[in-house]
Amino acid sequence: MHPPGGKAEKKVHYSGRHLRFCTVGHWEYVERTRAASAVVVAALTPAGEVVFVEQYRPPVGANVLELPAGLVGDGPEGSAEDPVEAARRELLEETGFTAAHWEFATKGPISPGLSTESIHLLVAGELKRANDGGGVHGEEEITVHLVRLEQAHPWLEERRAGGLLVDPKVYAGLFFLLARQGGPAAAVS
User: Fold this and answer.
1) H helices within the chain, ranges in order?
2) How far apart are CA 116 and CA 114, in angstroms?
């Protein structure tokens, strides 16, 4: 499908340190100025625990349960950073875990009506604890939660019912983890 009425010209209305606000025709959206994609990591410990992170997110004014994630190109390599290297870096920074096994799950737009940003969702296995995690450079308020895979959904629903926000990408990560464990998602993967 193509834009109605032919191709409209992109206009940049504001460019900040991290975001650029644009329109194409009547459509308003944002672009990242330093990175075009992000990584999300669905990680499972050898004990069968999913690694979740919880952190305060100013745009929604609340704590959010998420999978470890971050920008590709936010590390020392800059825009040349490989998504797997970005995932390794983010997993270690946020959770204190390293992973010996990495598998690409999917890539796609994160919010195609609002942003040009895309995500790479990776599955990480054979985890080892390297440090306590908790974030770096102003992210030091990240809480790491380890929850058995088979208990993840009820645990998340309990937190959500208690008022905590849950990032929907968590459920995509659980789908891929279950598929790799031969669980219910395996039949449709």
Assistant:
1) 83-95, 152-161, 169-181
2) 7
Which among 130, 137, 138, 163 is positioned nearest to 51, based on CA atoms? 130
115 neighbors 18 (Cβ within 8 angstroms) = no
What's the pTM?
0.86
How many residues are given for the chain?
189
Calpha distance 20→175 (Å, rounded)? 33
Whether the CB-CB separation of 25 and 64 falls below 8 Å is answered with no
Q: How far apart are CA 72 and CA 70, in angstroms?
A: 7
The CATH fold of domain 35-183: Nucleoside Triphosphate Pyrophosphohydrolase (3.90.79)
Residue-level pLDDT, tens digit, the chain, 189 residues: 555 556 789 999 999 988 899 999 999 999 888 887 999 999 999 999 999 999 999 999 999 999 999 999 875 555 678 999 999 999 999 999 999 999 999 999 999 998 989 999 999 999 999 987 776 666 568 999 999 999 999 999 999 999 999 999 999 999 999 998 764 443 332
CA distance 91 to 136: 11
Do residues 60 and 52 make contact, with C-beta atoms less than 8 angstroms apart? no
Domain ranges for the chain: 1-33, 35-183
Residues 173 and 121: their CA atoms lie apart, in Å, by: 7
68 exposure class (CB count in 10 Å sphere: 0-12, 13-18, 19+): buried
